[in-house]
Amino acid sequence: MRWEDFRRSTNVEDRRGQQGGGMRMGGRGGLGMGTIIVLGLIGWALGIDPRILIGGAEMIAGGGPVAPQVQQAGPGAAPNDKIGQFAAAVLAQTEDVWAVILPQQANVRYEPPNLVLFSGATQSGCGFAQAQMGPFYCPMDRKLYIDLDFFADMQRRLGAGGDFAFAYVLAHEVGHHIENLLGILPKVQQMQRQVSEREANALSVRVELMADCFAGVWANHAHQRWRILEEGDLQEALNAAAAVGDDRLQRAGRGHVVPDSFTHGTSEQRARWLQIGLRGGNMNRCNTFEAQRL
What is the pTM of this model? Predict the structure, then answer.
């Protein structure tokens, strides 16, 4: 993926290195390694703060992590390391694409989110942001949160590496921000409070698949404008999307799958909806709530 020559977003808060970092992957208060891996992957796949979308909180709370010390959010310094620069460059590309596409295709003005880089733990508008939760979007403060060590874990434990796979992760979280700007997230949260757990989980799946599709829309338009994609990039993103399907995660963690508990979509669904966005670049095709087939 081409990114080095592009501008860096100024909407980045770099909180790494502040005092009070919380727990990191690989050594948390007696949790088994299998539990740690499953918690981390499921937390990332949620996309939205786990306490906001029903089902996510139950999966993450199941491991019983001890509440970490919280980093105090001070003024963020611009990232100067390679991975921080990469995140800022990808965020800038999402800003430039959605500033054009969202008004054109949805008649909504784009308001870019902030990206918070942290180490271990920090405070978000939705509560604790912990590394084991993975990247997530908080609609309360309209910020994306990520411990960039997640990319190394993603590559090492899932075999889902590569810069475009990492870009997909960030673009997926931006996709949740698009859903928030469109008013979809508040409606879903209200609906989830009125239905059964199984129905609430099904709504969450549609939210996640839509964010995957929006990530594909971004990639389509970014490539049209800047030719960012290189050989193998698309397969990297598809591998990453498939790697965090509910069926694959549950099979790895439980040895079997429970479809009614799915909150993110199967591996096939996640890869397919990413491709829907990639192929057409039309966000109106991402309406998972009207789709007969997920």
Answer: 0.79
> Within 130-255, where are the H helices?
149-158, 163-181, 184-192, 197-226, 233-243, 246-254
**Structure token digits, residue 179:** 């859903």
Q: How do residues 63-98 score in pLDDT, each as one tens digit? A: 333 334 444 434 445 688 999 999 999 999 999 999
**DSSP label of 268:** H
Q: Tell me the C-alpha distance between 158 and 172, whole Å.
A: 18
| DSSP β-bridge partners for residue 126 | none
Domain positions in the chain are 12-286
Helix (H/G/I), strand (E/B), else coil: 12: strand
> Three-state DSSP class for 184?
helix
Between CA 1 and CA 11 the distance in angstroms is: 22
Look at residue 292 and give its three-state secondary structure.
Answer: coil
Tell the residue number behind the tokens 């899932």, with chain if given. 158
CB–CB of 90/3 below 8 Å? yes
3-state SS record for 26-63: CCCCCCCHHHHHHHHHHHHHHCECCCCCCCHHHHHHCC
Exposed/middle/buried for residue 250 (C-beta within 10 Å: 0-12, 13-18, 19+): buried
Q: What is the pLDDT of residues 5-46, one digit of tens each?
A: 889 999 999 998 764 443 333 333 333 334 334 445 554 554
The C-alpha atoms of residue 286 and residue 172 are separated, in whole angstroms, by 13
Note every long-range contact of 232-235, with CB atoms under 8 Å and residues 24 or more positions apart, other chains counting: 232/162, 233/1, 233/162, 233/163, 233/164, 234/164, 234/278
Total residues belonging to the chain: 294
Q: Which residues of 16-27 are buried (b: 16+ CB within 10 A; e: fewer)?
A: bebeebbbbbee
